[in-house]
Amino acid sequence: MAKHNALKALVSFDGRTRRRDWWLIWIGLAVIQTSLWALLSKMIFGAWPSLLDPSLSQGEAAVSLGVLLVFLWPLTALSMRRAHDRDKSGWLVLVSAPLAIADGIAMLIAPDLMMSPMAPPFSTLDIAKHVFTSVYLIIGFWLLVTLGFLDGTPGPNRYGQSPKGVGQNNYVSPPAD
C-alpha cells in the first residue's frame, strides 16, 4: 500500500495532496534534483558546480535542463494535486512548466545574455529578458503562496476526499491536548 501511495505521489494527476506532504515531497525532489545535477556535472565536466555562482557554461546548462525535464512530470503532478486540494484547476500549475522549460532553453542557447546584468544602454533583449524573469518570478511567488501556505478545502471537493480525512463520515478528530 505504501509503495502505491509513493508512486501515486510522483506520477498521478488525480486526487488531492495536503500541504505538509506537498512540502516534504517537493523539498525531497528538489534535493535529489540538485544532487543529481551536481553529480552529473562532476562526472561530465570533472568539477563540482558552484551552487552559489549562478553562471553556467552551455554544457552545465544542458545538464541542468536535462535534469529539469526528468523532474518536471513528478513536480507538476504533485503541484496539480495540491491545487486540487485547494479546489482549483490543476491547469493553473501548468503555467509555470513552459516558463521553466523556456528559462532552461534560454540558458542553454545564450547563457551570457541570461546572466548579464541590465545596464544602460538597454537593448531589446535586455528588456525582454527582465520582463520574462519578472513574470516568471511573479507566477512562481503566487504558486508558492497558493500551494505552500494556504490550507486546502475542508471535506470533500470535486477532486475527491480530503487527504486529512476531515469531513468524511468515518473521520475521528485527534484528541485535544
Nutshell version of this structure?
By secondary structure, the protein is mainly alpha-helical. The protein contains 6 helices and no strands.
Q: What can you tell me about this protein's structure?
A:
This protein is mainly α and about 180 residues long. The protein is about 60% helix and about 0% strand. It is built from six helices and no strands. It has helices at about 1-10, 20-45, 60-85, 95-110, 110-115, 125-150. Helix 2 (about 20-45) runs antiparallel to helix 3 (about 60-85), helix 3 packs antiparallel against helix 4 (about 95-110) and helix 4 runs antiparallel to helix 6 (about 125-150). The longest helix is centred in the middle third of the chain and has 28 residues, at about 60-85. The chain is globular. The two termini are about 30 Å apart. The model has no long low-confidence stretch (mean pLDDT about 85).
What multimeric state do the chains show? single chain
Order of helices and strands: HHHHHH
CA-based shape = globular
Radius of gyration: 20 Å
> What does the largest sheet look like?
none
**What percent of the residues sit in helical stretches (DSSP H or I)?**
55-70%
Number of DSSP helices?
A: 6
Mean pLDDT across every amino acid position? 83
- Euclidean distance between termini CA atoms: 31 Å
Structural class: mainly alpha
Question: Which spans of ≥5 residues are poorly predicted at pLDDT below 50?
Answer: none
Q: Would you count the extended β strands for me?
A: 0
Question: What is the beta-strand fraction?
Answer: under 5%
